[in-house]
Amino acid sequence: MAHSTFLLAYSSVDGQTRTIMHRIAEQLQQAGHQVRFCDIERHGEPEWEGIDDVIVGAAVRYGDHRPCLYDFVKAHAVELTARPNAFFSVNMTARKPGKDTPEGSRYMQKFLEKSPWHPQRLAVFAGALQWDKYRFIDKLMIRFIMWLTKGPTDTRQNVELTDWAAVQAFAKALSGAKKTG
């Protein structure tokens, strides 16, 4: 199998999407691939030269992906479509069975409706409640949302909700997805 260079572009609010992307990078590197990161929040202008595959990951906050994600996919739709690609969404409703699939995630469906780019492979992962990182108003709002949706509301401890086995399986599928040579 030929080894690829992957662009790993992400939009992370509190760091969980970045953490997930780094876990995916580890799997890709173990399979012999190279990776380049692009933090969409900070600088959404990746170097496309030499990129064989691309994975984009984005967090949801207050019901939608961040505007910079939509700006990124609009600006780079041609580059994204020109190579094997994948997209994953990170949100808190994915902690519930059925909401952790592309078909069952209203956030994924909303992204696909709004985006000019239609990724080849999709995944949805639950994030983490990182109470110690939230501003006061965010903590109140997120706690209220968790209360409404019967999620964890104890703000004294962070809660890891990411299904790491699902992340690993997604990464493994992507690491072997492109077989040439």
Tell me what you see in this structure:
It is a single chain. By secondary structure, the chain is an alpha/beta fold. Helix content is 35%, strand content 23%. It is built from six helices and eight strands. The protein has helices at 16-30, 67-75, 77-81, 106-114, 136-148, 164-175; strands spanning 5-11, 34-39, 53-61, 64-65, 85-91, 121-126, 128-129, 159-160. Strands 1, 2, 3, 4, 5 and 6 form a six-stranded mixed β-sheet that branches. Helix 1 (16-30) packs across helix 6 (164-175). The chain is globular and about 45 Å long. The mean pLDDT is 90.
Brief overview, please?
With 181 residues, the protein is α/β, with parallel strands linked by helices. The chain has helices at residues 16-30, 67-75, 77-81, 106-114, 136-148, 164-175; strands at residues 5-11, 34-39, 53-61, 64-65, 85-91, 121-126, 128-129, 159-160.
Order of helices and strands: EHEEEHHEHEEHEH
Counting DSSP E segments of at least 2 residues, the number of strands comes to 8
Tally the helices: what do you get?
6
Question: Percent of residues in beta strands?
Answer: 15-25%
pLDDT below 50 for ≥5 consecutive residues: which ranges?
A: none
Overall pLDDT level: 90
Oligomer: single chain
What portion of residues is helical?
25-40%
Largest sheet: 6 strands, mixed
Shape: globular
Find the structural class using helix and strand composition.
Answer: alpha/beta
Gyration radius, rounded: 16 Å
- What is the end-to-end distance? 6 Å
